[in-house]
Amino acid sequence: MASNCELYRKASIGTSLTDALDELVTNGSITPLLAVKVLMQFDKSMNEALQTKIKSKVSFKGHLHTYRFYDNMWTFLLENATFKKDNENLHVDLVKVIACDAKVSGR
């Protein structure tokens, strides 16, 4: 089971990093151990950056299609959701929101 701290590996930046590291390991440029260390540093850096660098607040509402709680992580599927930040509004037909408690996950 993946740690909550590895949540951002599934984002496009995380998958791109993983793909690049896999290629480097495959062609012998780096060791698998170094690739694991890079991913662990990525997890740590993403969590620190999101805690210290992001100051914006966003509110959202929509129709709750599905929700579940598993492994200390909430997953919500919202239909017809509206996100609001300052005077900006964004409407999406379907969005998946994943939330975890930073205190529980050790961040």
Q: What is the total tally of β strands? A: 3
Known CATH architecture of the largest domain: Orthogonal Bundle
The helix-and-strand class reads: alpha+beta
Strand and helix order: HHEEEH
Question: How far is the first residue's CA from the last residue's CA?
Answer: 17 Å
Low-confidence stretches: none
CATH class of the largest domain: Mainly Alpha
* Count of runs of 4 or more consecutive helical residues: 3
Question: Approximately what portion of the residues adopt beta-strand conformation?
Answer: 35-45%
Shape label? elongated
Largest sheet: 3 strands, antiparallel
Please state the CA-atom Rg, rounded to the nearest Å: 17 Å
Helix percentage range: 25-40%
Could you give the order of strands across the largest sheet? 1-2-3
Description:
This protein folds into 2 domains: 4-52, Transcription factor IIA gamma subunit, alpha-helical domain (Helix Hairpins, Orthogonal Bundle), CATH 1.10.287; 59-101, TATA box binding Protein, subunit D, domain 2 (Roll), CATH 2.30.18. Strand 2 and strand 3 (88-100) form a beta hairpin. Strands 1-2-3 form a 3-stranded antiparallel beta sheet. Helix 1 packs antiparallel against helix 2 (32-52). It has helices at 12-26, 32-52, 102-105, and strands spanning 59-70, 73-85, 88-100. The chain contains 3 helices and 3 strands; from the N terminus they run ααβββα. 37% of the residues lie in helices and 36% in strands. The protein is an alpha+beta fold.
